[in-house]
Amino acid sequence: MRDQLYINGEWVSPDLGGYLDVIDPATEQVFHKVAAGTEEDVDHAVRAARRAFDNGWGKTSGAERAQWLEALADELESGQQALSELEVRDNGKPLPEAQWDIGDAIGCFRYYAGLARELDQQQDQPLALPDERFRCRIRHEPIGVAGQIIPWNYPLLMAAWKVAPALAAGTTVVLKPSELTPLTALELAAAADRIGLPAGVLNVVTGLGADAGSPLTEHPGVDKLAFTGSVPTGAKIMSAAARDIKNISLELGGKSAFIVFDDADVEAAVEWILFGIFWNQGQVCSATSRLLVQDGIAPRLIERLVEETRKISIGPGMEPGVLLGPLVSQGQYDKVLGFVDQGLASGAKLLTGGRRPAHLKEGYFVEPAIFDEPGHNSILWREEVFGPVLCVKRFKTEEQAVQMANASRFGLAAAVMSADLQRTARVANQIRAGIVWVNCSQPTFVEAPWGGMKHSGIGRELGEWGLHNYLEVKQVTEYVSDKAWGWYLK
Ligand code: NAD
Predict the structure, then answer these.
(1) Which ranges carry the Aldehyde dehydrogenase domain (predicted)?
(2) What distance in angstroms lies between residue 150's CA and the mean position of ligand 1's atoms?
(3) Which of 329, 373, 324 minimizes the C-alpha distance to 349?
(4) Where exactly does CATH 3.40.605.10 map onto the chain?
(5) Which residue intervals of the chain bear CATH 3.40.309.10?
(6) Which CATH number applies to 257-438?
(7) 251 noted as active-site residue
(8) Residue whose CB lies within 8 A of the most ligand 1 atoms, among 90, 149, 412, for a mutation test
(9) Of the candidates 26, 49, 170, 378, which lies 20 to 30 Å from 357 by C-alpha distance?
(10) Residue 15's pLDDT is what?
(11) Which DSSP string do the residues of 192-224 spell out, in sequence order?
(12) In whole numbers, what is the pLDDT of the chain averaged over residues?
């Protein structure tokens, strides 16, 4: 396990800051320490990234960068099991989910290797103009130095979603992982180091948001800020970016609705609803945490949801058969139990869960909870819990379901389930969210755009949209006529 900062192709100790504890959420014990980077370290990292950009990386071909990305993917793949186990220890999630994440992260590097190659073909494409005296070509050029700040819920996967497209575009990177889960980002740096990625192309600065994240957002040498995290931090980052007119993309929170109509298959609904809210302990930005159920199916569906939720096995992520691990931290544990208390105080009916499981004396474990009919204006219905808490409300008509789903300041995702595919298409088209799942919830593909409307963010990651986050578009327009332009030379 690494504990230093990775700057300019070297492992270095923090300039002024000390070291931060890394805690295993299943035991609440400190098992490692990592460098607490500060403004000085961020400055070294940004300067290194700028030199790497100016001195070569920004001028490489897409085909060259594709080879580096594939080498990185191979290197991660060779340590896939160890990385998965490290993710479990750092984050708490069950091992099969960590394996899934690491596999997806590797796939993300391979996918963007493909897009880097395609970029060479797309370079200098002619653009037809309505005036024959001119010829125009379009270039896609790397944006420069990207500052990337990520959360703790999918530590390596969130790093991959940002680092892979940036490197594919020819941009260099300073990555600031979450202080709660810094370890696999450092392993990504170690993989880059082993394959000999040129110094400064990828820098990883661990540390607290205020001490390492904030200086990154304010550094004048950063051209692009890419952030995934909470809405309040996103707003701060947007203000910092505004001072310097930095390019920005934000992936923020959500409170996504799952609409189930009377004609849906009850058992299929149970499966997708539970997965949609309880995988990764509900610490999922796109979690479908607001369940809207049509009156006719509600009694049977809610009964089955409660029955199955009570069977979910909770325990340390390394234990075979466990579906729900601990929450990531004491702070997150207190926050989720606080939401449960507020829900009870507001008069919502707790149908199951919402407590520490009796058999687990240590670790940040919370039983998956279902609340029935929280008030429209209750905090539980409106705000993101980011934990294993499902809220259920009933509706009568399609129009009412759409209205209730859209009555949120968030707009990241939504799901709709019905046997009537014309209806699901109608509803999907009316939902104000960046992602709509039909007859399922949560499946995520690296090819498809990811991101939200309203307070859920600005811009899209993944797919070609993710690549274009790190590219500038340039037109080169040439006057090809042998006649004078004729403004004053008549
Ligand atoms: P957070 O905002 O507390 O922290 C995210 C990152 O920002 C961390 O690395 C943190 O150190 C850093 N940070 C904190 N303060 C900062 C500051 N002032 N300046 C710069 N950086 C700062 O969020 P979190 O608790 O780590 O993550 C949970 C949130 O992330 C949830 O709201 C969730 O919905 C969201 N999220 C969104 C997506 C998405 O794709 N839309 C994906 C995952 C998580």
Answers:
(1) 11-476
(2) 6
(3) 373
(4) 5-252+456-476
(5) 257-438
(6) 3.40.309.10
(7) yes
(8) 149
(9) 378
(10) 80
(11) HHHHTPPTTSEEE----IIIIIHHHHH-TT--E
(12) 97
